[in-house]
Specification:
By secondary structure, the protein is of the alpha+beta class. 27% of the residues lie in helices and 35% in strands. The N and C termini lie far apart (69 Å).
């Protein structure tokens, strides 16, 4: 868990080193959250000392998730199936009456 002013988030830690130099004392650390859909916190190190720190202050993520899909105003499969079935029944009855 990474805590920032925007809240606490479960994150993946990613370390970025200069090309072909994983022993360098200059590197970046990024904390990525799936919930936020972006970097939540980052640090830049030069010679092993933090030279820059960034933290998420607030966010609004419009990415879809299971809950938002269930609460949307889009008709569900059941409703579409019901309408299609009703139309088929009406068409069959019209054909039988003629």
């Amino acid at each position: 868990m990474v805590s920032v002013p925007a809240g606490s988030f479960s994150c993946y830690e990613i370390r970025e080193y200069p090309v072909n130099d994983t022993n360098s004392s200059s590197y970046n650390i990024f904390y990525l959250s799936a919930e936020v859909g972006n970097v939540v916190k980052s640090f830049s190190y030069n010679n092993g000392v933090v030279s820059n720190e960034k933290a998420l202050l607030s966010f609004h993520y419009n990415g879809s998730n299971h809950e938002s899909m269930n609460n949307s105003n889009t008709p569900g499969f059941e409703f579409i199936s019901f309408v299609a079935s009703a139309l088929i029944i009406i068409l069959i009855r019209r054909c039988l009456i003629k």
